[in-house]
Design brief:
Arc Repressor Mutant, subunit A; 4 helices; mainly alpha; about 50 residues
Length: about 50
Amino acid sequence: MLGLYADNYSTAEIAERLGIADSTVSVVVRHAKVKLDVAARSEAVRVFRALY
């Protein structure tokens, strides 16, 4: 999902594309931020880009 954010998709667009609820996208991103030890979604996207 961070890859889709990196490609400038919105939460709603990601949810629609994956066939899941907006809240599910938010929960997955929240968990990713914890695992990456960052506070903001933009930081998580930056880390994602650096890794992939």
